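Two folds, back to back.
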Amino acid sequence: RGLMNLRYEEGSVYELSFPDGLFDVAYAHQVFQHLRERGLALSEMLRVVKPGGVVAVREVDWSTVAYFPRDPWIDRFIEVHLRTWYRNGGEPQVGRQLRALLNAAGVASLEITASVWCYATREETVEWGESYADRLLTSPMGERPVEYGYATRSDIESMAAALRAWGSHPDALWVFTHVQALGWMAR
C-alpha cells in the first residue's frame, strides 16, 4: 500500500524494546485474555505512548457466547476451554474488566464501547467451526485439557467433530461480545 514507515518486530508485551513516549498509539487486539500479568502489560504499553497518546485494547468476553443449534459437545468444549484458559493463567472474561484495568493504570481519559461478533452466514459459520476444530486437533488448545485431566483425546475429537457439524448446519449462529477500551495519556 505504499507505507514506508512500517516494520514488524516480535517481542514481549511485558518488556517492549522501545523508548518511553515513542508512539502516538499502542494497540492490543485479543492479547490480554491470554496474559497472566495484564496490569504489567498495560503499564508497558502506556510507557511507550507519548503524552496525549492513546492505548487501545479490544477483548472478548467468552461468558457471552450464544450459539445455535445447541450441542452437548460444544457446551463441553466451552466449559473445558474456559477451565483450561484459567489454569493457563489467562482471563477469558477480560473484556468486562477493561474499564477497571485502565482505571487502575491511571489513564487521563477513558472510553469504553462494545460490539458483537456475529457468525451467521454459511461461510462464516463453516470457517468458525473448522478453525476451532483444527485448533483443538492440532494445537495446545486441545493438548492442554488432556494434560490437565479435563478431557480425554476422544473428548477433544468429539468436540472438534461437533464444531464442524455445527458450522455446516443451515441454522448455525454464533455471537459473543467484545469490549473496546481507549485510554488517553495525560498531556
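---
second:
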Amino acid sequence: APLGFEAKMANLRRGMEVSRILHQMPKLVVAQVDGAAAGAGLSIALSCDIRIASASCKITTAFAKVGLSGDYGGTYFLTQMRGAAKARELYLMSPVLSAQEAYNLNIVTKVVPDADIDAEAHDVAMTLAQGPSVTLGYIKRNINNAETMTLEACFDGEAIHHSRSSETADHKEAAKAFVEKRKPVFQGH
C-alpha cells in the first residue's frame, strides 16, 4: 500500500539529513559533478563545500518541470549562494545549465575537461585533506555561522575558533615552516 502523507514526509525528511550533515560537519566535502546534477542530486552537491564539474555536465533544479517543489535543501543552499531572485529563477524556470553557466553563477567551483574530472576532484580533496584539518573545520563553521548569525555572534565564534586554531600543532608547524622557508607538513591536530 502507498505510504500515507505523514509517513512519506517523515521518510523524506529523514533522507534529507544527508544534506544537513554534509553542510554542517567539520570535515570538508568535495562534490564531483559529472554527467548530470538535477533535483535532489543538485541539492546534495550544493550542500558540499567545493563542487568540481566536468565540462559536459548539465545542472538543473528540475523540480518544477516534474511537479515537485524541491527537497534536500536545494532552495536553502541556492538562496544562500545566489540570493532569492536567482534561486527563484532557477527553481521556477528550471533551465538546464551547462557546467560553464553554472560556474559563471558560482554554483560550481571549477570546470574541468571530462577526462580530468576524477583526477581533479581527487586532487582537490587530497589537497584539503592534507591541510590543517582542525582549522579548515573552523573556517567552515565560521562561514556557516555567517549564514544565520548576527555580526556580533560571528565575531564571538571567530574569536573562539581563531584562538583554538592558534593552539594546534598544525599552526605551530605552519609558523615554523614559514620561518624555515619551507612548505608545512600538517598532521590534522
